[in-house]
Specification:
The chain has 125 residues and is mainly β. The chain has two helices and eleven strands. It has a four-stranded antiparallel beta sheet with strand order 1-4-11-8. A three-stranded antiparallel beta sheet has the order 7-10-9. The longest helix has 6 residues, at 63-68. Residues 36-53 have low confidence and may be disordered.
Amino acid sequence: EIRYEFPSNAMQGEESSYALIHFDWRPRSMKEDTVMSKESDEIQMSLGPERVMEKEMLAYALPHHTDSIQQVVGSSNSKTGHCSEGLHGQACLLRGGEWVMKEYLDGPPSFVAPRPPHHSIIPSL
C-alpha cells in the first residue's frame, strides 16, 4: 500500500516543502500462506487476516533512498550492514516492513541522483 502525505507548516500557514511517501509492504512468509492438503496434491492458499503475522522484509535500497527513509513506529527500518556496489552507488540491504520516505518538492523532478558515479565504474561507462 502506498500513501502520500503533504504536511502543512501549521506555524506559518504555508504549504510544506516536502512530501512523505508511505510504503507499507505488508510482507509475510509464503510458508505460512501455503498449506499442502493431505487429501490431495492441491495447494490451498490461506490468506485470512487472522493467519497473517507481522514480518519484516529485506530489500536493497539505493543511497538516495536510504538518505530519505524516516523511522516508523513498529518497523525497524535498519541497515543490515550488507551492501553491494552497483552503477548508482552502493545498494544496501534494509530491514523493515514499512518505509516512509521524505521527498523534497523544490524544483522539477529529476531522474538522476545528484552525485557522480563511483570511480571504479567510470571506465565501464
